[in-house]
Amino acid sequence: MAERGRFERASVRDAEVAGRTVLVRADLNVPLEDGRVADDARIRAALPTIELLRDRGAAIVLCSHLGRPDGRDPELSMSPVAARLGELLGTDVALAPAVVGAEVEAAAEVLEGGDVLLLENTRFEPGEAENSPDLATSLAALADVYVNDAFGAAHRAHASTEGVAHLLPAYAGLLLEREVRELTAVLDDPSRPLVVVLGGAKVSDKVGVIERFLEVADEILIGGAMCFSFFRAQGRETGDSLVEEEGIELARQALADAEGSPCKLRLPVDLVIGASFSADAEATVVDGVDVPDGMMGLDVGPATSAAYAERIEAAGTVFWNGPMGAFELEPFAAATKAVAEAVASTDATTIVGGGDSGAALAKFGLGDRVDWLSTGGGASLELIEGKALPGVEALLSEEQGARSKELR
Question: What is the dihedral angle through the alpha carbons of 5, 17, 78, 382, rounded to the nearest 10 degrees?
């Protein structure tokens, strides 16, 4: 895992870019609605790096994926992104007709300092996900320098995130740099107590994070549907609740590991149940965690919410990833809202691991009241686990360090 401060030799802050063309891999994977950008948060997150490069006289070739297209899909064109980015920058952002090719090379060659060219959706190219050397070479031919600012895609070894980084002097963008710094600090230098709140559906998605935090955190508070794998491991009745069968043994092992850890692993003490996963379902609070047949647990209960909020408010550092229940359904949103409000109001340092947690903060109007909201759900969890992120490691190789030094 990248250590805190390791970008000192590979930061865009130190790159000489005046008069050069810079290929910037950003994470502009934004939701679209009626042909327009519905939420521009990720575009805004990319602006500091883009503006820094423009201010220093670089021409910018920008690339990103958008959605999961099966080949070239007009519905997933980067055109709306180019339009919104241009509005935010206050300048025209040209959209290339493709990702690579003669027309794209011609468009890149005429760029001047401060110009921005956005390539089409990188996933229109089958070689992107395959980390094709040919595609990486074609991307590298468009620029003199490479900057990776796409933390949300840094855990993918794709041509635009990993392959091209070995072919050009490569640097971390301001967003990627801060993501690594903020998330690593949760493990290396947290103010105590460190309280971790984990929700979501699958234990298998979070087991590595749980095991890592059992080593360094003071408390782990479990919510979401994943709690039912823990309850099943304890022999509790879960009714028709969503239970990840493969997560039961993982939960059992986590509970055993917690017995020998100074970190407290806490489970809900009450639940909100309903007859179906529906906004029309009647919400019923049960005192305890056994779910009757024909019913499903859809939220943690008010006693749990209050206890979790109290621990969050007393924390020195809070890391939150995953909702407490089916917050998209109004009858079952209370616990996630209570946790979001506690995270927003505590005096602790607050780090939120993107994904559904970020969506919950946005829903409740609290997105600007946390210290750091990560743009990378999967990437943030893998970094916390201690996994190497290909898009990060490519920037830190000895070969890359020498190449970047030569450019400076």
Answer: -10
Name the 3-class secondary structure at 394.
Answer: coil
Cis peptide bond prior to 193, omega within 30° of 0: yes
Of 99, 207, 184, residue with least CA distance to 389: 184
**Residue 80 has which token pair?**
């709306």
Provide the whole-model pTM. 0.91
Specify the pLDDT at position 355: 81
| Residue 28 in tokens | 């502009």
- What domains can you pick out in the chain, each with its CATH number? 6-176+388-407 (3.40.50.1260), 192-347 (3.40.50.1260)
**Positions marked active-site:** 42, 202, 355, 378
Decide if 113 contacts 57 (C-beta within 8 A): yes
Spans of the chain, pLDDT less than 70? 1-9, 397-408
pLDDT confidence of residue 396: 84
What one-character-per-residue DSSP string does 290-324 give?
-B-TT-EEEEE-HHHHHHHHHHHHT-SEEEEES-S
pLDDT at 3: 41
